[in-house]
Every structure is written in structure tokens, then in C-alpha cells.
Amino acid sequence: MHLVPSPEVPVVTLFERVGGMPFFAELTRRFYEQVALDPVLRPLYPADLGPAEDRLRLFLAQYWGGPTTYSELRGHPRLRMRHAPYLIASAEQRAWLSAMVGALDGMAVADDDRAELVAYFEMAATHLRNAPDH
Which is more confidently placed, 85 or 53? Predict the structure, then answer.
């Protein structure tokens, strides 16, 4: 029996489906607007939120199939290690997740892609929790 190879179906990443870097720039801009006003999250960040916004934008873009700029600049993400100095209990976990999901609200993104993003944000928020409740 001779099998005819099927043409490869190109993989379209979430990065591409949502519009690439402009989507992640808008998402992180909206997220950090919320961080700036949040009494739980704001104390976890330095005075200048710009560098943190840049790092999150590059990380999320890379994670979802975009350029590998984050790793080229900073090495392996090592999220738990990078967040270890910050006490992240349930209040911080909830506030971060709320701000990330809130940043997505009103953005033009397909339901399936939104669900995939939210599922990742939920997992990340849980994974990065490193302290008992205050």
C-alpha cells in the first residue's frame, strides 16, 4: 500500500491569530494601567512601570509564538525564580488575574483565543503564588 503524503497544514500561532505584537502591546498597556491604580498590585512594582511592561509584553509574545526577544535579552523565563522576591498570596494572585482578564475585556479577540489566554493567566497566577495569606 502506497500512502500519499498529505500537504502540511501550517500552524498558526495564537500570536498570529490575535494580530501579533500590537495585540500584546495593547494588552500589557491596559494591564499596567490597572496595576498603577491597584492598591494590592502597585506596591509589588518599582516606581517606573515601563520596564516591567516591556518584559511582560516580550514574554507573552514569545510564549504565544512570537519573536524570541524575551529569551534573547533575559535568558530562560524562570518565572517562579524571578517572582520569588515578591510575596504573592491569594490577594495578589486574585488582583493580578483580575487585572490581566480586565485588560482583555473590550479587546478584539476570538472567543477561543480569549479562553486560551484566560486559562494560561489562571494557571500562571496559581503557579506564581508563593506565600500564605497575610
Answer: 53
Q: Which three cell numbers stand for residue 38?
A: 491597584
Can you give the length of the chain in residues?
A: 134
Distance between CA atoms of 94 and 116, rounded to whole angstroms?
Answer: 18
58-115 pLDDT, tens digit each? 999 999 999 999 999 898 878 778 887 888 999 999 999 999 999 999 999 999 999 9
CATH number for the segment(s) 17-128: 1.10.490.10
Q: Taking Cα atoms as reference points, which of 62, 51, 46, 54 lies closest to residue 28?
A: 54
Q: Write out the DSSP string of the chain.
A: --PPPPPPPPP--HHHHTTSHHHHHHHHHHHHHHHHH-TTTGGGS-S--HHHHHHHHHHHHHHTTS--HHHHHH-S--HHHHHTTS---HHHHHHHHHHHHHHHTTS---HHHHHHHHHHHHHHHHHH--S---
pTM (predicted TM-score): 0.88
